[in-house]
Design brief:
The complex is a heterodimer of chains A (461) and B (98).
Chain A: H1 2-23, H2 30-49, H3 58-74, H4 82-111, H5 116-143, H6 157-177, H7 184-200, H8 208-230, H9 233-257, H10 261-266, H11 289-298, E1 301-306, H12 308-312, H13 316-328, E2 332-337, H14 347-354, E3 362-364, H15 365-368, E4 377-381, H16 390-393, E5 412-417, E6 437-441, H17 444-455
Parallel strand pairs in A: 1-2, 1-4, 2-3, 4-5, 5-6
Helix pairs in contact in A: 1-2, 1-9, 4-5, 4-8, 5-6, 5-7, 5-8, 6-7, 8-9, 11-17, 13-17
Chain B: H1 5-24, H2 31-42, H3 46-55, H4 59-89
Classes of the chains: A alpha/beta (461), B mainly alpha (98).
């Protein structure tokens, strides 16, 4: 009887998860989505806790309290740290799947209930779970810049990684054929853990939005595999929703960079520095905050193009002040957000929303590009590759073919940049040398602060 | 309740197609909260972990299960809280001009 109640609660939970994702399609219904998903989760957990198989709550309570104790502070990180939190949560998801797989394996092995089918799904769960766990941790470390964000490569890298995965999968198949060869199981676990590390090592900072989406997909698939192991429809359905969302996002990210999935994973993008520096030293026009304030306040329309530099400098609130000042003067200010700007999908939108910039001012790349020739000033804040005209014109450039925001077509371009160092992809950007470009060197937060000061009247003529 | 392989694959296939269709319709504005929400949803793995830690058949299983409960509870709590925190920030109205 309880079994039916539990299964019914699971059914309702699955329905609520689907509704939640539907409501995520628009900002005005999105908060309802969280409420639906939370309700679904509570029903599912409640349904599990009342099952008669559960004989002790001691360990559950202890682990849950510890989980809440870590989860609450993790939800309070600054929004610039959201990418590394996401990587960490994918690692935890993978870890949970891996642990359950290992536990089930030894349980069934001891009981002699390890059928071929069970062995196959356990192997799948453990491989997926473990590689997501270490991959997520490493991605998180890269995103938090605890280690270099440049790709780490060595000779024969792809072959080593490939062989490792084949050996792990091969041992998994062999275990499926003969589940009693229990010595091979820890090796599968170990290889999968190492493979997760190898998968992320060659990925550079600029590819992180794609890779974080992939890891999302893997985390979902490990939940699906757990569903096959535990024979749970709810786990399969919820895991598949997560897996497909990661997959769709990866495809969107790949398209936005004009790269294939294999190229992102194995291409070690950004490891090579710019091929050959031009012989002649080129000069850039550098401007002061006073010049920038003058230009911006006299323009009819301004398009602000934020990039990772804005996140690093935590400049979003200064950008909001600038927006206020310009809007007060009747300047039409829009924000053009490139799909891969930042370190995860949608990263810039969240930061701008945090600074209270209304979301109807945020315009997608495809909608803003036709307007660019009529734009008075394009203000680039810490973005680089996503506005590099080489993507349109230079067939030899590694980013050739990538869709970009056509900042160069604006009447005047102001680029805020720390220094002339090339961006993550290590590619020179001709935009900075163009006749209509002015460079404002310095920390984005400080520079925009100065411009705002000029506009708000302090020192302005 | 037993689940046979074909039913399981059936559920997997339908949920995947449904998921891809729904996710494609999500506004680009919301891709970051979308990712944290789907992460939180996939912490439904807690259900499996709870069974292991609660059945407590032997010490190893209990420990692994409890650790898995810990990992998925962390995800669940932080995932929902941060999604809600981000979504609260998305506002359409222009703030009243000073």
């Amino acid at each position: 009887m309880t079994g039916t109640v539990t299964e019914t609660l699971y059914l309702i939970a699955a329905g609520l998860f689907i509704l939640a994702l539907r409501w995520m399609s628009r900002p005005d219904t999105a908060r309802r989505a969280v409420a639906a998903a939370v309700t679904g989760m509570l029903l599912a957990v409640g349904g599990t806790l009342i099952s008669p198989e559960i004989v002790t709550y001691k360990w559950i309570a202890l682990a849950a309290v510890a989980g809440i104790a870590l989860g609450v502070p993790l939800a309070r990180v600054p929004l610039t740290a959201v990418p590394e939190r996401t990587g960490l949560s994918q690692a935890f998801g993978g870890m949970a799947a891996g642990l359950v797989g290992v536990a089930k394996y030894y349980l069934w092995l001891a009981d002699g209930q390890l059928t071929h089918f069970r062995m196959a799904v356990v192997a799948g769960e453990v491989i997926l779970g473990c590689l997501t766990a270490t991959g997520g941790l490493l991605a998180s470390a890269k995103l938090a810049e605890w280690m270099t964000t440049r790709p780490i490569t060595y000779r024969g890298q792809n072959i080593v990684s490939f062989v490792l995965l084949v050996v792990a999968a091969g041992l998994g198949v062999w275990l499926t054929i003969d589940p009693t060869q229990s010595w091979a199981f820890p090796i599968v676990v170990g290889l999968a853990l190492v493979f997760g590390v190898l998968l992320i090592l060659p990925i550079g900072g600029a590819d992180m939005p794609t890779v974080i989406s992939f890891l999302n997909s893997y985390a979902g698939l490990s939940a699906v595999a757990m569903g096959f192991v535990l024979e749970s429809k709810l786990l399969i359905a919820a895991g598949a929703l997560d897996g497909s969302s990661g997959f769709v996002l990866s495809i969107i990210m790949c398209k936005a960079m004009n790269r294939s999935v294999t190229n992102v994973l194995f291409g070690a993008f950004g490891s090579v520095q710019a091929v050959a520096k031009r012989a002649e030293e080129r000069t850039v026009k550098s401007a002061t905050a006073v010049d920038a304030a003058e230009l911006l306040s006299n323009a009819d329309s301004v398009v602000i193009i934020p990039g990772y530099g804005m996140a690093v400098a935590q400049a979003q609130h200064r950008v909001r002040d600038l927006y206020d000042q310009l809007a007060k003067r009747g300047v039409d200010v829009k924000f053009a957000v490139h799909p891969v700007a930042g370190r995860m999908p949608g990263h810039m939108n969240v930061l701008l929303a945090e600074a209270d910039i209304p979301y109807d001012r945020l315009v997608e790349m495809d909608d803003i590009n036709p307007e660019m020739p009529h734009v008075g000033v394009a203000l680039i804040i810490g973005a680089n590759d996503v506005v590099n005209p080489a993507a349109r014109t230079d067939e030899k450039s590694p980013i050739y073919g990538m869709p970009i925001i056509d900042a160069d077509k604006a009447q005047t371009v102001i680029a805020i940049k720390r220094s002339m160092n090339p961006g993550f992809a290590g590619i020179e950007n001709d935009l900075y040398y163009a006749d209509n470009t002015l460079m404002l060197f310095g920390d984005a937060k400080a520079v925009i602060g100065d411009v705002v000061k000029q506009l708000s009247g302090e020192g302005a003529a | 309740m037993k689940l046979d392989l074909l039913t399981a694959l059936f559920v997997f296939m339908l949920a995947t197609f449904l998921g891809m269709d729904i996710i494609r319709r999500v506004s680009r504005l919301l891709h970051t909260p979308l990712m944290s929400l789907t992460n939180a949803i996939s912490s439904i793995a807690v259900v499996g972990a709870l069974m292991l830690a609660g059945e407590a058949p032997d010490r190893l299983t209990t420990w692994l299960g409890a650790l898995a409960v810990f990992a998925s509870t962390t995800n669940l709590v932080s995932g929902y809280l941060i999604t809600d925190r981000m979504l609260r920030m998305f506002k359409r109205r222009e703030a009243p001009k000073s």
